[in-house]
Fold this protein.
Amino acid sequence: MLTERQQEVIRHAVLRGYYENNGNPKIKDLAEELGISRSTYGGHLSEAEKAILKKVGSDLE
């Protein structure tokens, strides 16, 4: 469902509190932690979120 890199990025975002409501870290900062560009991190995160939401949506039917 997700590539290894997408899994790494979304796991990293979750563990660093990206989806919490109290002072989220910025994608720029998360990307720096993994040594990749902000746009690359954001792209992997977006694709991972889309894949997960498609799976959840299909499970609801």
Remarks:
- The chain has three helices and no strands.
- The longest helix spans residues 38-60.
